[in-house]
Every structure is written in structure tokens, then in C-alpha cells.
Amino acid sequence: MFSKSNLLATLVVGILNFFGGYLVWGIATADFFAQHAGSATGVMKDPVDLVHIAIGCFIQAFIMSTIYSKWARGIHSAKEGFEFGALIGVFTGFGMGLIMYGSSNFSDLTGTLAEGVIEIVYYGIIGAVIALVYKATSKKNA
Predict the structure, then answer these.
(1) pLDDT tens digits for 13-47?
(2) How far is CA 7 from CA 11, 12, 135, in A?
(3) Residue 72 included in any domain
(4) Which entry of 44, 66, 124, 127 is 20 to 30 Å from 24 by CA?
(5) CA-to-CA distance for 132 and 17, rounded, in angstroms?
(6) Is the pLDDT of residue 142 over 70?
(7) CB-hemisphere CA count at 13 Å for 119?
(8) Closest listed residue to residue 131, CA positions, set 87, 89, 82
């Protein structure tokens, strides 16, 4: 669980998750999601709490890397990693997203479905990066 591969993947992906999330949701899609916000107003912090966001990003990175290490069974490729991450994206984007849509007013259905697609691609890329770190640090390549 605390292998060199896992810790390095956690570090790389934690940083990527923090800055990549800002680029995707804070800049690239912010206007889109503002237009598809539900009736829940005043739920966003202004300013956001970057310390807790960073901690969350590193927790996600560690857990994804740990699960990946068990899922991959020593086969590390960008394709395998993307598939792993995309499954996480389906779970969070559509699974959790539709549960949130059905139980809250954070987003309309268009925003929820768009979020699902974005999360599949985003976490697919995160998974590919995890796989590439594992591949670069695996004992077979050392």
C-alpha cells in the first residue's frame, strides 16, 4: 500500500488532480455549469477553501492509486489505466451524479449528464497517468 509506485503516483496525480480540476471545472466549464445550476443558490464558498480541496485531491489520488495497484495485477499501460479511470468516472459522474440529481437541486439534468461525460474523460486521464507511473517504477523496469 505504501510502495514507491503508489506514493509516487499519489504525488503526481494529487498535483495533477488539484490543478487539472481547477482548469476543467474552475475555468473551462465554469460558465457552462453556471448556466445549468439548479435552484440551490449560495452553496459555493467564495473564496473556495484551497487547503481542503488539495487534501481531498491527494486522498483521491492515494485511493485511486491503491485500488489501481490491486486492479491492474502488474499489467501497466496507458490503455489499462484509462479504462480503470473511466470506470471511476462512470461511478462518480453518472452513478453519484444521478443520485445527487434525484436528491438535490445542485444541477439540472443537462449539467448532470455533461458532468458524467467530463468525469469519464477526466478520471480516464488520471487513471492513465497512474498506470504510467506504475509502469515506470515497476520492478520489471528497474
Answers:
(1) 999 999 999 999 999 999 999 999 877 666 777 88
(2) 6, 9, 14
(3) yes
(4) 66
(5) 15
(6) no
(7) 18
(8) 82
